[in-house]
Design brief:
472 residues, alpha/beta, Alpha-Beta Plaits, 4-stranded antiparallel β-sheet, 40% helix, 17% strand, globular
Length: 472
């Protein structure tokens, strides 16, 4: 079968089917939902998939907003990622290049996940149509993964076995540049330590045992621990530990506090380093509790692996990205991006226009790393927001609502669906990608880092969403 004919069909299908996906992205943007509460957003995507002939399973891995949609038959099995959670406090008016919330302090799509999930669904439906048109053998799956912003959804789906039997994972992310590298990212953990003591009046504090003292003592121990942890080597993703005191009480200086919580997150170049650091930070908590005669409970929120790069699969994605080219932005769109940059005081360079050279390296932490331990994984970054403005930002929310976001969405669907055609029509690519995958794992295999008895925190953010739902 002529690959050029099949890929030309896929490109034309993408070009001729835009409105339904623009509408889906708009609906998700207009109802931003926090992690584990993406009920409307996930339904927008599952409805689209069901309408286009996919078999859809919802509520997978114990998460009401997670789903798996499948079409086709047999191998290869190609999985496409979909995310759709929003971020707290990033509500923003569409079309306004200055900070202007729709609902003050409400959530907003400041990471562009309204586009990410929609483009993944569009690509999958394009692949489905090519399977039907040319009688191709293979299966396409869409993995609806909630709570990416907390690195929660994919570990639970991996633990439940939903990544088994997949031959390749394809993904994308809206960003401030264009590239499709074979990069890695750090392992990650998020954990809370809850200290419990005994209250007493501040004029006789010897009767009390301060939980806050214990939390502070743990923090001091971790600061001393930093010297004895390998610092890592990537320029933007080296080994880091951050913490805050998220709760203490009673909140009155004349009462010895009997409750205090410390929240730690860590990013480490390898999973082994992350596991060792977490062990040592936990020992700091135990030692602080012993020293202050308090007790401590550990609450692991999430933990993810470092990402396993795959040069073979990334090369396929990069080549298809080069073929279709980056998003082409108008002068007006460039001026809007520059105005956002002006508002936040960075260089007014606008939006990226070229594709960066193919390379390795490191990228930001994401729970997509869980995919990469199960099969070859590749993901392009596609320009949508202003350069040098950071991310998780009101300006990103604004860009994700309009034509800049639509152009990024379209380009992502093209790149993913074209790359899938290469995999369906050329078995040698998957064979070589799997050889590299096996070599990079070096005898290791995937095992979810979450405890076996840990259940998804499905009520997470429920109360916050109730507060803002009336404003949506």
């Amino acid at each position: 079968m002529d690959k050029a004919t099949v890929k030309d069909f896929v490109l034309k299908w993408n070009d001729n089917h835009q409105d339904a996906f623009y509408d889906a992205a708009k609906k998700i943007w207009e109802s931003p939902e926090l992690s584990m509460q993406e009920f409307k957003s996930s339904k927008v995507l599952t409805d689209l998939l069901a309408e286009n002939g996919f078999k859809v399973e919802t509520g997978v891995a114990g998460m009401p907003t997670a789903f798996v949609a499948s079409y086709g038959d047999g191998a290869p099995v190609i999985a496409i990622n979909a995310e759709y959670d929003a971020l707290p406090g990033l509500s923003q008016k569409s079309g306004s290049a200055k900070k202007e919330a729709l609902v003050e302090s409400a959530p907003g799509h400041g990471c562009g996940h309204n586009l990410l999930g929609t483009a993944g669904v569009k690509a999958a439906i394009a692949i489905k149509n090519a399977i039907d048109e040319f009688g191709l053998k293979g299966t396409v799956k869409v993995l609806g993964t909630p709570a990416e912003e907390l690195c929660l959804g994919k570990p639970f789906m991996g633990k439940a076995g939903y990544f088994d039997g997949i031959d390749a994972f394809l993904d994308w992310h809206p960003w401030s540049y264009n590239k499709a590298d074979y990069d890695s990212c750090c392992a990650y953990f998020s954990v809370k330590y809850h200290f419990h003591g005994r209250t007493s009046h501040g004029n006789s504090p010897w009767h009390g045992r301060s939980a806050l003292d214990a939390a502070i003592l743990q923090g001091h121990a971790v600061e001393m621990l930093r010297e004895h942890i390998y610092p890592g080597c990537p320029p933007d993703a080296a080994n880091t530990i951050n913490f805050t005191f998220s709760h203490t009480g009673p909140e009155f200086p004349s009462v010895v506090p009997d409750k205090a919580s410390a929240w730690y997150v860590g990013r480490f170049v390898t999973t082994a380093e992350a596991e060792d650091a977490l062990r040592r930070i936990t020992n700091c908590a135990k030692g602080a509790a012993l020293a202050t005669e308090t007790t401590v409970e550990t609450e692991l929120i999430t933990m993810t692996h470092h990402k396993i790069p795959n040069q073979v699969l990334a090369q396929v994605v990069h080549d298809n990205f080069e073929e279709v080219g980056p998003p082409v932005f108008t002068d007006e769109e460039q001026q809007t991006a520059k105005e956002i940059q002006k508002q936040i005081g960075v260089a007014e360079t606008g939006l990226a226009t070229g594709i960066l050279p193919f390379n390795g390296g490191h990228t930001v932490v994401c729970d997509t790393s869980e995919f990469s331990w199960n099969a070859p994984y590749a993901s392009p970054w596609i320009a949508m927001g202003p350069e040098n403005a950071g991310w998780h930002h009101w300006g990103v929310t604004m860009c994700a609502a309009g034509s800049m976001g639509q152009k990024s969405l379209d380009k992502a669907a093209q790149v993913i669906s074209l790359s899938a055609m290469d995999l369906l029509l050329d078995p040698e690519i998957i064979r070589r990608a799997k050889e590299e995958f096996k070599e990079r794992l070096n005898g290791e295999s995937y095992k979810c880092l979450l405890p076996d008895d840990y259940q998804p925190p499905v009520a997470l953010n429920a109360e916050v969403m109730k507060k803002y739902s009336a404003g949506q």
